[in-house]
Specification:
The protein is mainly alpha-helical. The protein has three domains: about 140 residues, MgtE N-terminal fold (Alpha Horseshoe); about 120 residues, CBS-domain, CATH 3.10.580; about 170 residues, Tetracycline Repressor, domain 2, CATH 1.10.357.20. It has 23 helices and six strands. Strands 1-2-3 form a three-stranded mixed beta sheet. The longest helix is centred in the last third of the chain and has 31 residues.
Length: about 475
Amino acid sequence: MIEKEHFQTQEHGENEALYGVSQETIRALEDALENADEARVERLIEPLHAADVAIVIEYLSPNLRHQLIEHLRPHFDPDILYYLNETVCEEVVEQLGTQEIAEAITGLKSDEAVAVIEDLDEQQQKEILDSIPAGERLILEEVLNYPEDSAARLMQREVVCVPSTWIVKETIDYIPREKNIPEKFYDLFVVDSNRIPLGGVPLSFLLRQSPSTKITDIMSTDIKRIPALMDTEEVALLFRKYGLVSAPVVDGKGRVIGMITIDDVVDVIEEAAEEDIMHLARVNESDFFEPLLSTSYSRIGWLMITLLNTLMAVTVISQFQHTIEKMVALAVLMPISAAMSGNAGMQVVTVTVRAIANRELGGSNMKRAIWKETFVGLINGVVFGAMMGSIAAFWFSDPALGMVLGCALILNMIWAAVGGAILPIVIDRMGMDPAISAGPFLTTTTDLLGFATFLGLASLFLV
């Protein structure tokens, strides 16, 4: 057992070294910064990837963060901005100043530059854009004019497009000569004279062809053209469904205006998952790095809604005050129905929201999915109703009380299943995000019905 634990600890340390910065390095950096040891700070920072430097910056306290940014200022890596949390990035932008940030942004790919700028407040955006050379500024402003969650905001403007009249040799000769091409790319796209995409050629496939081969003879016409206004989560689904590595983005006239690659899509998937998790807990995605008062203020709204839900449940309970006074056992057992159905309902909500997000739930299978969840709720209700009813009957030596609790559980878990399936669908049809709204609606109803059914049945049959 000791050998196994040692191996697991060693393996964890090796894995951490592969994909992140170790806690030992962070602590060493903190010590070096506190002692103003510039040489040691440089030795520790120099081998780190920009993503790891961003993690270090986020880990540090505000004072040490300020010191590290000052140390990095003379040779600041622009890629660090792309990896920083939105709140921390705003602090860094404010510290470095408009001119230095503008110079840093010009060193980023167009999609990364847009990602950094769009997260800043309007005043910072304007100041930085005004400081960027006119040519690059026009490109960035054009992309920023598209909706926030559109494919155009995700794309990079640098894309390799070649005429349909070329042969392989012309294409291969063109790539090292052209300056305005992506630093990394996987496919090139064949276009006509109007930049309408006709097909695509993977770079690895191109290099294995005879120099005299026509580019149109080796291109694949089965390419997915992504409209500039397509939602980024739709783009992620498209990439996942068809196993894409890259795809051209087209404007309203079908002309190529950019390209989306798989690394951009990974970011979308991660952000969407993080956003859904945060929404389920009713907190902001940048909540961890927000100042104290901002964090408190952002959470108060949802806590107020929870308070209102609780007051509604208390109001329902108060209607049965005399019933509870006559039979104290009801006060002990009444949370069970609400708690069990609430958890069961959230399971259904989670599954349904995921199915909606992945386009797995549609008109053809919607009724089947709802009926399935209804019967699952019935089965689980019977199982747990029988279990808790038996426990209550034995505990309080009252079979009738057990029967009432069992029936209340069955009824409420059926509603939890039906509501958990229907509410996300209805909310999605209304154009709202079911990940945000479905949970509060469902837990409110399961709480109210849980108390009402249990105490109502008790009033009818026990008191």
